[in-house]
Automatic annotation (TrEMBL):
Its EC number is 7.4.2.10. Keywords: ATP-binding, Cell inner membrane, Cell membrane, Hydrolase, Membrane, Nucleotide-binding, Repeat, Translocase, Transport. This is Glutathione import ATP-binding protein GsiA. Residues 566-590 are annotated as: Disordered. Belongs to the ABC transporter superfamily. Glutathione importer (TC 3.A.1.5.11) family. GO terms for molecular function: ATP binding; ATP hydrolysis activity. It comes from the Bacteria. It is found in: Cell inner membrane. It is a peripheral membrane protein.
Length: 606
């Protein structure tokens, strides 16, 4: 059993045909994965990590790629080893999902928007395992519980858009695990998840691997996750494998300069101890010279008081409102000019809702939002449109927020055309300048979104948000899907712009190490309320609320000798934010522990 690896990639070469001739996605890569082993493939976006996994699934051909050389040996359950390059479409269909499961990076694009979660979960079980409808439904519920989805019975009848990002990702993981595959390919499965769920999902995958002997190919750029999960590590750079070794060897004695630079660029929790203002992050392979902190000002730009946003839930024959989802409950905070306030918390805690409520992309139920002296809640549509010159948003999923049919030059120019702030040559010059600012080559101006990597797309989104010179930018998980090196560049870019243009950010994130880097103030959210709020140093170095402490504990550490045990992660299940129509929650009351450091006294349920 052990002498034959479950999967072997030998001298793989993948080419993509473009207008400018063939582009090599993977040049010459070989590695194997044994039963019950986790091999982490790391590298930055564009290094060929995902291309290798898509080749193994023979899906790369559907994305315009061609396997130009090499062998893909897979050891089948009953039929022994075979080269997947020679398998026909029907055989591949049997293997996919049944013997090789895949967790895709983007949960929103991996799920079908027109089918319920239950339908998508049971489909593979009925096709591959021949289960009856009732048996498949039973197994689907069991899988939903395994990936810790609250109220699974109700979720089975919901559609993907009704779930938060973290929940959608858990559904994708459940689908991949449904048929108990021999090989599980996980392509950035925890990138869009917050710390606590990430810790649980990693523990879940680890447990399943031990119980079922599944081989796991884990693609990630998060070195802390690698330290937590990997048995062996393969480091990729520009389509080539540059280093391979056990997890201890890679972390404690990296040989290749790229691996060393990659490890140096990882933001670590606790690095900012004793520093009062945010500082830029370390970049891969560059000498940044002196790093200047960004103090900001004490002049308020945005004041939010008692912001409450609820979403109605309809039911019954007449589709009456039977309950409300209390997404954001009695939220108050201030953001100063040139400073960053970060909101952290688990998926579904309401942090994105708060960001969208500020711009009135979702309508708040009550509360006051004052931006630079103007009351946003009292504005009519035309005043609101004018006020959007001052506030912009960078969304979580750059692929979904960019128009697939427009060239990038037009997407970045569009806000300026809409508001008439520039035209003709001035417009083109400004777009080129914005591309320079976000460090994208001008040759990209004529490209379309699908021709860029995730990190590059996110930079286009940042360039577009900057087009109108806003005062406030709401960055909703803007760097969560980026790899270490690109994340550092994008974060530094945002901080440089903050220092130069005096921008203020509401930075919504679940990556505690990045939050520690960029924030002046931090608010921790749980179930629609801010449970703790204060200057970054106070919240990170002296967390007072039980939930903040649990959150800090779940952050993975980039050291394979300090792995988290499943027993350490004792998170309480998150109660439902849904309440009947007449329910009136008590207002949030806070006690001030130290100056500006507030902790919620009202019972938050944690």
């Amino acid at each position: 059993m052990l002498d034959q690896p479950i999967a072997q990639i030998e001298n793989l070469r993948v080419e993509f045909q473009t207008k400018d001739g063939p582009v090599v996605g993977v040049e010459d890569v070989s590695f194997s994965i044994n039963s019950g082993e986790t091999v982490c493939v790391v590298g930055e976006s564009g290094s060929g990590k995902s291309v290798s996994s898509l080749s193994l699934m023979r899906l790369v051909e559907y994305g315009g790629g061609e396997i130009a050389g090499g062998r893909l040996i897979f050891d089948r359950k009953n039929d022994g080893p075979m080269d997947l390059r020679e398998a026909g479409p029907d055989l591949m269909r049997t293997i996919r999902g049944n013997e090789i499961g895949m967790i895709f990076q983007e949960p929103m694009t991996a799920l079908n928007p027109v089918f319920t979660i239950g339908r998508q979960l049971t489909e593979g079980l009925r096709v591959h395992k021949g289960l009856s409808k009732a048996e498949a439904q039973e197994r689907a519920l069991e899988l939903m519980r395994q990936v810790r989805i609250p109220e699974p019975e109700k979720r089975l009848d919901q559609y993907p858009h009704e779930l938060s990002g973290g929940m959608r990702q858990r559904v994708v993981i459940a689908i991949a695990l449904a048929c108990e595959p021999r090989l599980l390919i996980a392509d950035e499965p925890t990138t869009a998840l917050d710390v606590t769920i990430q810790a649980e999902i990693l523990a879940l995958m680890d447990r399943l691997k031990r119980e079922t002997g599944t081989a796991v190919m884990f693609i990630t750029h998060d070195m802390a996750v690698v330290a937590q999960m990997a048995d062996r590590v393969v480091v990729m750079f520009r389509g080539n494998k540059v280093e391979e070794g056990t997890v201890e060897e890679i972390f404690e004695n990296p040989q290749h300069p790229y691996t060393k630079a990659l490890l140096a660029a990882v933001p670590k929790l606790g690095e900012m101890r004793g520093k009062s203002a945010p500082e830029p992050m370390k970049l891969l392979g560059t000498d940044q010279g002196e790093i200047k902190p960004i103090p900001g000002t004490n002049e308020p730009l945005l004041a939010v008081t008692g912001l409450t946003t609820r979403f109605p839930v309809t039911g019954g024959l007449l589709r009456r409102v039977v309950a409300n989802v209390h997404a954001a409950e009695d939220i108050s905070f201030t953001i100063n000019k040139g400073q960053t306030l970060s909101l952290v918390g688990e998926s579904g805690c309401g942090k994105s809702t708060v960001g969208r409520s500020l711009l009135r992309l979702v309508e708040p139920m009550s509360g006051q939002i004052t931006l630079d002296g103007k009351e946003i809640m009292d504005m009519n549509q035309s005043e609101l449109r004018a006020s959007r010159l001052d506030m912009q948003m960078i969304f979580q999923d750059p692929f979904a927020s960019l128009n697939p049919q427009m060239q990038l030059i037009d997407q970045v120019a569009e806000p300026m055309r809409n508001y008439g702030t520039a035209s003709g040559k001035a417009l083109t010059d400004r777009v080129e300048m914005l591309f320079d600012r976000v460090e994208l080559p001008r040759s990209f101006l004529r490209r379309f979104p699908h021709e860029l990597s995730g990190g590059q797309r996110q930079r286009v989104a940042i360039a577009r948000a900057l087009a109108l010179n806003p005062k406030l930018i709401v960055a909703d998980e803007a760097v969560s899907a980026l790899d270490v090196s690109v994340q550092a560049q994008v974060v530094n870019l945002m901080m440089e712009l903050q220092a130069e243009l005096g921008l203020s950010y509401l930075f919504i994130s679940h990556d505690m190490a990045v939050v520690e880097r960029v924030s002046h103030y931090v608010g921790v959210m749980y179930l629609g309320r801010i449970v703790e709020m204060g200057p970054r140093a106070a919240v990170f170095e002296n967390p007072q609320h039980a939930y903040t402490q649990a959150l800090m504990k779940a952050v993975p550490i980039a050291d394979p000798r300090k792995r988290k045990d499943e027993r350490d992660l004792n998170f309480k299940p998150i109660p439902s934010p849904m309440h009947p129509v007449g329910y009136d929650p008590e207002p949030s009351k806070y006690s001030e522990v130290t100056p500006e450091h507030f902790v919620l006294l009202t019972d938050s349920g944690y």
